[in-house]
TrEMBL record:
One of its GO terms (cellular component) is cytoplasmic vesicle. It comes from Homalodisca liturata. One of its GO terms (biological process) is regulation of Rab protein signal transduction. PROSITE patterns: DENN. Residues 6-439 form the UDENN domain. GO terms for molecular function: guanyl-nucleotide exchange factor activity. This is UDENN domain-containing protein. InterPro entries: cDENN_dom, dDENN_dom, DENN_C, DENN_Domain_GEFs, Tripartite_DENN, uDENN_dom. Pfam families: DENN (PF02141), uDENN (PF03456).
């Protein structure tokens, strides 16, 4: 069992630093005050609460919700759910000191020494303030609901002690591990919520993020981006939406399953840290579109514009694609999932009603199923190239790269060669190499892939059926409880 959230933080505009000519955020309150022994507090969180920087505004903005992902020194991810809103402040500027001194000097030399009152201007400005929940768990909708309740209690003066609500979130709600039962709880504000852990701990949870990414970029651009992340390229997303940036990074790394992304991962890069883009290591990052001009001269960074649907691959970047015929089969399968009506578009007597795409949540899993099948085909026979050395108490597993490429006839395949050289492939071998270990959906798919391919060669209509069967398993992993629970949120 784990805590739902580790810290609750209130971050506001630093008016003291504003007087010195700089604008930044400052932690106003933090609960608990002391660090948890197993989860130290992450310093610098105020940068990620306002990625574009802290600034006063002359217009009130609607409350916004987004999630920043921070990675600690042990490569553990911490999800910082932020609800940002504006507070009204009164600005009372007076005449500058130098002007007052000039008035005083003029008054001394003037024959009529008249004392004039200091001219004062009153204006209303809006300062940003953020409510933040920091957690090691990835339950974004639950965080949105909890922060929304705290905001409502605070703004509308609901007769509920805020300290009780916060303490319930931090100390009273225990979340079971993947495979555990549904948790129904209340944070003490008359709410009624439910939280459902996924079934498998190894499968990524995407909801509709993958489907959204393909609708934003299209099949071809998304495939190129997938090949880029699999060959350890530098990838940068741009959007005017913080949530879209986080979801795009989540979707791209989820497509890598059964591999795990092991390089720099910053879905929301603050403007103050934009120089991090000059790092020589691979990364997946996201920046607000307002920083587009600041990153336009990156010669080795692949830039994906989520709002415009474009993908820019610099001329100096060598980007191999999936080998044929795998690339064609993946493209065809994605077409069946995303554009099912395309197959009968030229028919003289088209079917009625025409086939429609699956709902976004299921379409998301169908796209992931296509890529899982692609990896199962690409990695066929990899286990025969593993060598287990049992000299040490913990077995050492090595992978014979040359033997695998030779057996599969992929010696000249640049894409496969690069994938086998990647850092995350080493993690894949050490994690899935041992013969005695718990198996998951990908292991089952890998063992059955040869039989599925033989059946599909005889009947091509089985391709979509097999994709949908696997997608249903992925959907069941995220939604194991078929009985909907009606939540009550303020």
């Amino acid at each position: 069992m784990s805590r739902l959230a580790d810290y609750f933080v209130v971050v506001g505009y630093d008016h003291e630093k504003e007087r010195s000519g700089t604008s930044s955020g400052i932690i106003i309150q933090r609960f608990p005050d002391k660090d948890w022994p197993d989860t130290p507090f992450i310093e610098g969180i105020e940068w990620f609460c306002q990625p574009q920087g802290w600034a006063l505004s002359s217009e009130r903005q609607e409350p916004r919700f987004f999630v920043s992902v921070l990675t600690d020194i042990d490569a553990n991810r911490h999800y910082c759910a932020c609800l940002c809103f504006n507070e009204t402040i009164s600005i009372t500027p007076s005449k500058p000191v130098d002007e007052q001194e000039e008035d005083a000097l003029d008054g001394q030399t003037s024959p009529h020494n008249i004392s004039l009152p200091t001219i004062t201007h009153h204006s209303i400005m809006y300062a940003p303030k953020c409510l933040v929940l920091v957690s090691r768990l990835d339950y974004i909708e639950t965080f949105r609901n909890c922060l929304g309740i705290i905001y409502t209690v605070y703004v509308e003066s609901v007769p509920v002690p805020l300290e009780n609500v916060v303490s319930n979130i931090l100390g009273c709600i225990q979340v079971p591990p993947p495979g555990g039962p549904q948790v129904r709880f209340s944070i003490g504000a008359g709410d009624r919520q439910a939280l459902q852990p996924p079934l498998a701990p190894t499968l990524p949870v995407t909801h509709t993020a993958v489907s959204l990414l393909f609708h934003q970029l299209g099949i071809r651009n998304a495939l190129v981006l997938f090949c880029a992340v699999m060959t350890e390229q530098k990838i940068l997303f741009q959007s005017r939406s913080y949530s879209r940036l986080t979801e795009a990074c989540r979707a791209l790394t989820a497509l890598m399953y059964p591999f795990k992304y092991s390089h720099v991962y910053i879905p929301l890069l603050p403007a103050a840290l934009v120089e991090v883009l000059s790092t020589p290591t691979p990364f997946v990052m996201g920046v607000h579109s307002s920083l587009k001009t600041d990153v336009s001269e990156m010669m080795d960074v692949i830039v994906a514009d989520l709002d415009g649907g474009s993908l820019l691959v610099p001329d100096g970047v060598s980007l191999p694609l999936l080998p044929e015929p795998l690339l064609s089969s993946v493209t065809e399968a994605l077409g069946l999932v995303l554009q099912p009506e395309l197959g009968g578009a030229d028919h003289a007597f088209p079917p009625t009603p025409p086939p429609r795409p699956a709902p976004p949540a299921m379409q998301d899993k169908e796209i992931r199923a296509v890529f899982m099948r692609a990896f199962a085909q690409l990695m066929q026979g990899y286990r025969s190239c593993l060598t287990i050395i049992r000299i040490h108490p913990k077995p050492v597993i090595t992978f014979h790269k040359a033997a695998f490429l030779g057996e599969r006839g992929l010696t000249d395949c640049d894409f496969t060669t690069r994938v086998l050289d990647c850092m995350f492939f080493t993690g894949f071998v050490s994690e899935r190499g041992p013969p005695w270990r718990p198996c998951d959906h990908w292991d089952e798919l890998y063992s059955n892939m040869a039989d599925l391919q033989r059946a599909e060669l005889a009947d091509r209509t089985l391709v979509l059926q097999h994709v949908q069967d696997l997608a249903h398993q992925l959907y069941q992993n995220e939604n194991p409880n078929q009985q909907p629970y009606v939540q009550k949120i303020l």
